[in-house]
Structure formats: structure tokens, C-alpha cells
Amino acid sequence: MDTSTNRPVDSLNPGAQQGAPGSVVPASRGASRGSLVETEDRTRDKVRAAVLEHGPISAAELGKLLGYTPAAVRRHLDQLERGGVIEVKRMVKAGAGAGRPARRYVISSQGQQHWGDDYLDIASKALRELAALGGEQAVEAFAERRFADMEARYASAVDAAGPDVEARAMALVEALNRDGFVANANVLRIHPVSKKPLPPQLTAIQLCQGHCPIQNLAAEFPVFCDKETEVFERLLGVDVRRLSTLANGGHVCTTHIPTGRNHQQERP
């Protein structure tokens, strides 16, 4: 089977089929160049999407994930960084010991806008008017109604997963992904430094959302983040904790979900 169409972009050499000096260049040469540009654009979109979903991520990890050469990945990362679509985070990996922080790539605030922040400026102005007329309580009531729709749509899928918190969290991740939040769940059962199993009561899940369609709006009105967190608590039946949000400068929205204890019995 011919697998040439699956080769990394770097393996395409536009000069490899040029004729000898003085030879006639085929008329299709311009079309081939256009196809190469389109391929480059598609590859760059794949790199950008992978950074959105898996960031913070290194160039080497991206290469392995997408099947591209390190040179190809770095070229696209450089272009995306120059365009302000992605940015570099210097991070020290837990348990790695002393040494220079590694370069990890994440989507920038500007890059987030590529995934649908339409009409946010109008919405922001409308909410300011609402606050001026009805006070902060009016904005809070609006945010609560906004997330009530999410809760109603997600409830059946989460309930179908049964009483297990981890299973419910995974169902929530799937529901969030259907709405374009680029979510994933990291199950925490091993201590990041000692590498020993955590006590059952300390196991947890970190639910990460790589995209927020109202990021700029939530930065001005944090009540939207608060109401989403409350929805997660009610859907999962445990007390969750927000560790970071895109609206507050984080590279993802991260929610800590304890799975080792029955918090429903602990609530007053």
C-alpha cells in the first residue's frame, strides 16, 4: 500500500522533482506549490489543535503524538508563537530534580479566540448594562440561568454512569467535549514525587478544559466560573475545587475532583 500521503510535511521536498538546467518545468508546478502550502496549513492546524488539547506539551511530545519530525514541529511552533497563537511556559517536571525548566507550549489568549469567541464584546457590554440596572445579583442570576441549561443537558449522561464518582467524571468529560470544551481527565492514584500509590482517601481526578468559549467574558465576570463549578459539584455529587481557570490566566481550566471519599455523606 502506498503510504506516501502519510509522510510528515518535512519529508516533502518541492525541489526533488525539478528538471535539469534548461529543462521545461511542467505547467502543474504552480498547482503543486499550492498543494504544499495547503498541506503546511493543515499541519499547522493539527499542531495548534494538539497544543490546545494536550498543553502544556513539549515539541518532542508533539512530534511523537502527531508523527512529525522534530524539525517540522518546531517550525510550526515557531510560526504559531510569532503569530501570538501559542506561548511558552517554563515548567519543572515533578520529580525531575535540579535543572533548567523545560519549554512547554500552551494556547495563548489570542489563540483561544480562534475557537469561537464571537460576540463576546457585545455580551460584555450587555452584562455591564445589566449590572448597572440590576446590580451584581442580576448578573449572578443570568449566569445561573446560563449554566442551568448545561446542567439539564448533562444530567442524564452523568447519571447513566452510576454512583461511582470516577465514572461520573468521565461521563462529564465526554459531555464537555461534545460542547467543544476540549476536556480530559487525569486520574491521580500515584504520588507525583514519591511515585508510591496514594492512600485511597486521597485519590482524585483533575478535569481539564482546554477551551472556554466565554473566556474573556468570565475574566470580567468571574461569577460564570463559579456557577460552572457549582454545576460540576451537583452533577458529580462531591465537593470539587477549581485550581486554575483560563479566564484568570491559566493555560487550562482545572477542577480537582476527589474520588476516594463519599462527600455526599460529609455535607451538612
Report what the structure shows.
With 268 residues, this protein is an alpha+beta fold. The chain contains 10 helices and 6 strands; from the N terminus they run αααββααααββααββα. Helix 1 packs across helix 3, helix 5 (120-134) crosses helix 6 and helix 6 (136-160) packs parallel to helix 9. The longest helix is centred in the N-terminal third of the chain and has 26 residues, at 29-54.
Topology:
Blueprint: H1 29-54, H2 59-66, H3 70-82, E1 86-91, E2 102-107, H4 109-112, H5 120-134, H6 136-160, H7 165-178, E3 183-188, E4 204-209, H8 215-220, H9 223-236, E5 241-244, E6 253-258, H10 263-266
Antiparallel strand pairs: 1-2, 3-4, 4-6, 5-6
Descriptive terms for the model:
disordered C terminus, 268 residues, alpha+beta, 10 helices, disordered N terminus, globular
Would you summarize the structure shown here?
This protein has helices spanning 29-54, 59-66, 70-82, 109-112, 120-134, 136-160, 165-178, 215-220, 223-236, 263-266, and strands at residues 86-91, 102-107, 183-188, 204-209, 241-244, 253-258. It has 268 residues and is of the alpha+beta class.
